[in-house]
């Protein structure tokens, strides 16, 4: 079948009613009805009239922002080596350092250091938007050239102001000499032949090489319990998984250091299902044995490559029949792949328990609910949905792909922190138009994927920052109000996307497979609209749900006349790297990680900041300004709101996060997914985190409830269930509380103890005399010969006095800590600014005032023994350094600074220090590490293989805040 609705060889703008009727009738529609539809379509095929939403006529978006030049120097947090450097890049002043670094290092094209290298965000946006505009004009999307220009400006404005972002492949490839691949999500297929299996390996390799991931269902492959035509026994899908896993582990994704991402699915009625369920759990047991024997089994360790099946996410595709058998406690039949006959029976509850036990042990397998997935399928006449992409949000036909884009929800809060539903819907329409245009010029890794994608034109619009939006508006993530708002926003998004898709069908024609699937597509749209009417927690007058209802009504009317341009419209992706590009606080559908997070600063250094959503939430909850400031200051110090001054206990839940002292319960995550799922064409990339103490029964309950609530897919992760993850401090071995059918497993934890590095008999030292608030003393600091402070002696007070004895003991404690490897900057961050007597003026020109003796001592030690870069982070400078800063800011031109002029330039009122902002501890490099420091235990997240910082969860994978790398999602 040829592409008749928008392929490069088709002039869609001049399609006649006769041709359209002929093509439509070929797909099974009555010729008379097709001709009538085609005539109506031909009258409307004059292109889109695009209206301005964000821009002003006659003013280019670039003229409305303030630009500045920055230097991007990205280092490995652990050893200080430079990973990437590009100086003088141009970005809007409002963009954060992190967003600047990530866009420059990830998305700018051209060899670093060459004249062809992109050096401005303008060049990047123009490269992408210009390509979309030209393709839209070429394929008849716009009514006039003026409409094309408005489209160009609107898209540019939204990207410039971080309102949305395309998925990473768009930024990598569009407008370059490389293949124009725009999709991040791929689904493959494999049949029960050796040729097909070997082709599976090849196709996966090509996709991995391009930096993307793929998923597929292996259920067509005969089980190890079935015979081959030659008379032998089949190998079974699990054996072939071994080869594919080795291939994925060898081909690094896009030439980067992270491994490829893949999803492997097996149907629950496959005779080898038990072997499939146990594959990764058995390998995890192997990891424990090898680790205890002294092998390096950490993530990225030298010996971890000997473990199999670690490069894929595994999921079991369960049917409604199986889930009902679990509820009723009956047997379930396992079917031969070739004949479909039942060749074995199993206890449904026993198999379900096995799935839960394996997930409890190693987080795999996840669950995909086949009945729900295919009940919401828009094109069932063209094939069933049998698999998903690696992150489990894209689910459609085999050998297909999906390009994604995500909106930043916080950008749609108005001055009164109300969600601007109308502007949001208009933004969705513009973005969907651009996403569909991209399929006209896109390249694909294989011919079957290209054919399916061009015929069905699957899109995946979604959003990020939901968690931040809910907190900012005073809604608890796990609450009826929070779920209602999330559901209404998701409903409006998909309704507006399908409405625009129907309008596009009237301009450039519906997707090629629509006529054959028209009834099913219309049925699914009606299901979305009915689910929208079922959101009962909001009053009928609520503007978000009210507009969503109107949009779905218009969507159905236009779609029944025109059809739809796209077989699917929306998913909720992890929004890893692009979430950082948009400066989002939270990714995808996730809640906030914690209330206090890590932030890099322009010019170097870093801060720990209280999330801006906290203050906005307090304002929206009715707290007075003074109360809100006190609570924010309390959060900055403690990291939570428990017992904060003036805080109402009933408001605690608004500030619950994914990690920290108050965490959202696992079922709260499931309920939020259920609130959004009825309004998505695809599914949701999300892992439900469970505490280490969770039981196998808890996992069963989660998986069962996910089916009852209508989810399409679900995966869990239990704290510390993987050996390759860091173990929480102070905890013993894993305890397997899985009921009477499982044994308690004893796990040996290998402790890594610090080693004391003693000073030699003869070592250099320096003594400083000091006076603080009239109290005199002496500080002696001894160093290692190869540099580095190793001991201190403090003489304060009369010999034999209590004060002298305490200072002697304190000195010994600090000295031993230094010799065991505790960094000096850690002590400086803890003891500087301590307030107690004696305090006041000193006789040290570098430290004129001290809030205590310890404050002075550690400031002096920092000045003498820490490099300038670390002291910048701590805010400690010598007298000469401070003078140089003043001169550079006010200028001296070689002349002595006029103190009177300087004093007159200083405001008479001192600006109050923001209690929400403090210097970040020197040893912290990410929000996850900051949270670890506050909680006193390690988080279950890997270190980034690029820059060494601790990653944070993002959907069903992990994201590095430092450099934008991900563990598998785009």
UniProtKB/TrEMBL annotation:
Residues 11-26 have a biased composition (Polar residues). Residues 1-47 are annotated as: Disordered. Its EC number is 1.17.4.1. It catalyses: a 2'-deoxyribonucleoside 5'-diphosphate + [thioredoxin]-disulfide + H2O = a ribonucleoside 5'-diphosphate + [thioredoxin]-dithiol. Gene3D superfamilies: 3.20.70.20. Residues 183-717 form the Ribonucleotide reductase large subunit C-terminal domain. It is an enzyme of class 1 (oxidoreductase). GO terms for biological process: DNA biosynthetic process. Residues 760-863 form the TSCPD domain. Keywords: Cobalamin, Cobalt, Disulfide bond, DNA synthesis, Nucleotide-binding, Oxidoreductase. GO terms for molecular function: cobalamin binding; cobalt ion binding; nucleotide binding; ribonucleoside-diphosphate reductase activity, thioredoxin disulfide as acceptor. Catalyzes the reduction of ribonucleotides to deoxyribonucleotides. May function to provide a pool of deoxyribonucleotide precursors for DNA repair during oxygen limitation and/or for immediate growth after restoration of oxygen. PANTHER family: RIBONUCLEOSIDE-DIPHOSPHATE REDUCTASE, VITAMIN B12-DEPENDENT RIBONUCLEOTIDE REDUCTASE. Belongs to the ribonucleoside diphosphate reductase class-2 family. This is Vitamin B12-dependent ribonucleotide reductase. It comes from Pseudonocardia autotrophica (Amycolata autotrophica). The gene is nrdJ.
